[in-house]
Each structure stands twice: as C-alpha cells, then as structure tokens.
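To: structure subgroup
Subject: Chain for Friday's discussion

All,

I'm putting the inputs and outputs inline so they're searchable in the archive.
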Amino acid sequence: MRKKRSSSILKKFLLFNFFVFLVLGLFTVLYLKAIQPNLIKKRSSNHFIIIQNTNDHLQRLNINLNNKDMTKFLLSTRFLFQNLNRVQFFDLKGDLIGDTNILDLDQSVFVKEDQILEESIDGKKFKSQKKTDNYNFKHSNLSDKEIIRNYDGKPFVFDNVEKNNFYINTLSDLTIDDKRVGFIKITEEANDILVAVKERKNFILRTVLAVCLVILIFSLFLNKYILKPIKFLVYFTESIKNKSKLSVDIDKLFIRQDEVGKLTKSIDEMTKELQKRTTRAETFSTDLAHEIRNPLASLKGASELLDKSKNQNDRDKFLKIIDHDVSRIERLITDYSQMLKDEASLSREKMNKIDLLQVINSVVEDFKLDLENQNKQINILVTKNKSNGSRYNILGIESRLAQVIANLLDNAISFSSDNQKIEIVLEETASNYLIIIKDEGPGFTENSPQKIFKRFYSNRPKNFGEHSGLGLNIVKNIVELHKGTIAASNRVNFRGAQIEVLLPKIQ
C-alpha cells in the first residue's frame, strides 16, 4: 500500500497564501494595466464634447475650412478651447489649415463687437447630444497625415510623450450635413494622469508589501507558538508508541495557560494512564499464567492417575480434583476478563449522587435470598448510627459500589459456617462514611492482612476453589476510584475478621 506523504499545516498555509497572492497579483496587474487607459478615456470624453460643439459652431456660422476663415473662427471661439494645449484643423487631404499654437488667444486681443463672436455666443452654449465611446485607442508614432489617410470613421485617441510631458491626443472628423469636411485634433497635457497612475501603483505595491509582511509575521508566530509545540507533542507520542529510548521533555509546555498547555496536560495524563494500564495488563498476564500453572499441573496429574486407576473410589477422587481444577481455571479466566473490562470502563462511567444505605440493603436482600435457596444458616445484619429516613449520600457509581459490597459479603460467607453471623455496620464521621463488614470466621493468620487485596492471594481455605483470588483486588481498585480506602484486620476481643471501607460523603 502506498504511503501518504504528510504535509505540515505551515506548508499548507503558505501554499494557500501563495495561490491567494497569485490570484490577487493577476487582478492587480490587470487593474494596473487598465488604470491609465481608463483615465485617458475619461479625459478624452471631454474632447468629444468640444469636438461636437466645434462642429455645431462650424455648421451654424457656415465656416469654410480654409486658413483665413479658420483663423477667424479660432479667434472668435476661444472659449471652446480653454485648458487645452493645442487644437489643430486639417482638410480632407490632411493639410493643416488651423492651429491654436500660431495664435495669440489672450482675451485682450478680441473685440466684443466682432461679428463672428456675436453670432457664435449669442447667449447659448453648445453641448454634445451624445458621447462617442466607439473609438480607437493606442500608443501611436504615426504622423497626423498617416492617421487621416487611414481613418476608418472612428475617432482616434492616442498618447505621446514630448519633452518629459505626457499628452493625450484625440483626432476626429468634422461633418456638416452628415458630410465629412475635414478633421480636428485636440492635444491636452495630462501629466496629472501619470501622477495618479504612479500614486495608485505605489499604494497597491505598499499594500501588497504590508500584507506580505503581516502574513510572514503571522506565519512565524503560527510556527513558533502553535505548530512547533504540536510537532513536539507528536514526537512525544510517537516516542511512547515506538518505546523509544529517546527522552522527550514536554515540561516547558506545561507552563502555558492556553489551549496548547491544556492539550499537553491532557496528552501527558492520557499517556501516563495508558502506561499504567499497559503495565497492569502485563503484570496481570504474568500473574494469571502463574496462577493457571498450578491447577493445570494438578489437572494433568489427576488425569494421568485417573487413566491408570481401576479403583472406583480413587477415580471419584481424581474426578473431583479435575472438576475442582477446571472450576478454578474457569473462574480465573472469567474474573481476569472482567477485571480488564473494569479497568477500561471504570474511568468512563459517570458518577452520580447515591444513597450508600440503599445500595447495601439491596445487595444484602439478594444474598439473603441466595443463602435461603442454598439452605445455609448464615445471618446477615445491617446496622447504622443514623435515625430512620436519613440518607448516606456519596458521589459514586452505584453498580460498582454494589459490586464492592457483594464481593466483600461473598468473601465473608466463604469463611463462615452455619449459624454464624455477618454484620454490616454503616457509620458517619465528620467527612466520611465508614462501612465495616464483620464475620465470625477463623480470621487472618498472617501478620499483614492487607495482603488479601493483592491479586491471586494464595492463603485461602480449602473450600476457596470457586474463587479466583481477584475479587478483593477488584474491590480495592473500585474503592480507590471513589477516592476511598480499604483495610483488613482481625476483630478485637471477638473471633473473626473485619474489613473497613472509608468513602467521602457529600452534603
């Protein structure tokens, strides 16, 4: 199977930003390329208004396109060409017949009584009825005659640079009664357009650089404070998974108060818990193999003797041994499997507020019924130091606490004989509840009764074959899960043993 290549978050982040910048860069280039033409188009629209008004004046005043008449026309219609650098008129052949550059357009040279002036400005302004958007635009080095010679009916707008100045030129035809009579060329200095374009380009470039800087700083921050710690945690978990001898120290991440610090603590706690469970499972397996070895040896020996023996009494004896050993092995495997399940599920079960007295009474009632069915004369009593109706509230898992009481009662019954008594005492202290289970059996023979809570405790009575030796160890684990303690001892001044369970109470 082909192994998938891993990719870091940082690489994905940088790759994403690269594509974003690529798209933005493309749109930026297109925008920058369109800035100057759009500004020129906007400026040239005024030229078309002037051209239309000029055409209206020519038709109104019935001006002939010759040098003499065009000179008078230019002098009289000076208001049409204000703020323009140059206006030129050409005949149909492309010959120049009028040029504002060769005229002095200062207002002082004009006479108010000039007949043409009076006729041209008689209180009215001539404006174009439409704007011409259909035109050719390009950077051109062609002469005016060449442009006129190739004129295709569309106005021609172009730009050029002379003596470090930027100019916009508009060349269009002049018509009278829908008949072309000549051409007009308007030239306007437009250095402000270059300034505007430069300013916009500089702004965009500064913005792009600023965004790049922000992303770079964010990437460094992301890598240092988030990605590196996460990568460090990955190394930590992999070293544990692979049982690497390389020690990975994550203590420096614990001081962080953010999500990374919380994640580090959770991973550390989870790792320690998994290591604890793994160690327990390995120890349990070793102990189980050791415990099964003895009944297997006994089972093998008894089966061999059974095969050789002809005496029926001996055969019955061997069969009983075999049955005892099989039961023992079966019980070991069952309890061991249950113990592993408990180890895995205990931490996941939710604790609730429960009444400890109710749990005890429920378990006792079940055991009384079993003893009655087995015709065993063992009396089980429950006593408490609170008045009737009082509750013994604790925070716990009801089924697990019932398992504790049941295992302790079962253990006490195993050491008890008919007509003996088992007493369960429930007492309240300042901050705890104390459960004491007393029996009238032989008591503990060893100096340290706490050994009974070890797995596969071996000092058992002869009738203990139906027990695995795991029950009390399971009890101890459940009690400790509930933040409690358990202890075993012989009764003082009385025959028998007692086990004390201390559990914290809640109000």
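Points worth raising on Friday:
Confidence is low (pLDDT under 50) at residues 105-132.
The chain has three domains: 9-197, 249-348, 350-507.

D.
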